[in-house]
């Protein structure tokens, strides 16, 4: 019993650590870190270089071995009998029938609530952007946006030198994500959806 409780406590502590996501443009670097794991992706031209860290120790990715291409004789594809499509043909009336069905509205409402809860799980930490455009019209728009939204977390700057820079930091709460998914999956109308699938989407 003690071992079980200690394992549960350890899982709770581990899940309490948020997922941190940061993105930097020029150069382009994406970093995802959680607890003791950190993964970075660096874009260099058309190549993507992945870097891994566990407990601060860098892991070297092994180079992939080149496989020798072996020519194989191509077999003639056998003609298969065309299967009869069991689904109804998609038409405007069919789409309207789905959209105006009360079950569709119910699922859409639950999906929107799920999206809201997932957005609440994101802690917006920092947004720093330098936008360089040699255009007076767009620079005026960017200048107005920067005066409207600039704060401690959001810093938007404009310049005429065409120097672009972006830095974004986010934190995602795992508990809030699990809570949102649990509510969505627990309240989803599975039986009604299956009946609707049989009655509406399949041909009678």
Care to describe what's here?
The structure is a single chain. With 204 residues, the chain is α+β, with helices and mostly antiparallel strands. It folds into two domains: 18-61 and 123-172, no CATH class; 89-121 and 174-204, no CATH class. Helices cover 39% and strands 28% of the residues. It has six helices and eight strands. It has an eight-stranded mixed β-sheet with strand order 5-4-3-2-1-8-6-7. It is extended, with a radius of gyration of 26 Å.
Descriptive key words:
extended; alpha+beta; 204 residues; 6 helices; 8-stranded mixed sheet
Fraction of residues in β-strands? 25-35%
> Mean pLDDT across all residues, rounded?
81
What is the helix content? 25-40%
Q: How many distinct domains?
A: 2
Q: Kindly state the number of beta strands.
A: 8
What integer value in Å does the Rg equal?
26 Å
| Succession of helices and strands | HEEEEEHHEHEEHH
Give me the side-by-side strand order of the main sheet. 5-4-3-2-1-8-6-7
Task: Identify low-pLDDT runs.
Answer: 63-71
Global structural class: alpha+beta
Task: Give the N-to-C terminal Cα separation.
Answer: 55 Å
Largest sheet: 8 strands, mixed
Number of helices: 6
Shape: extended
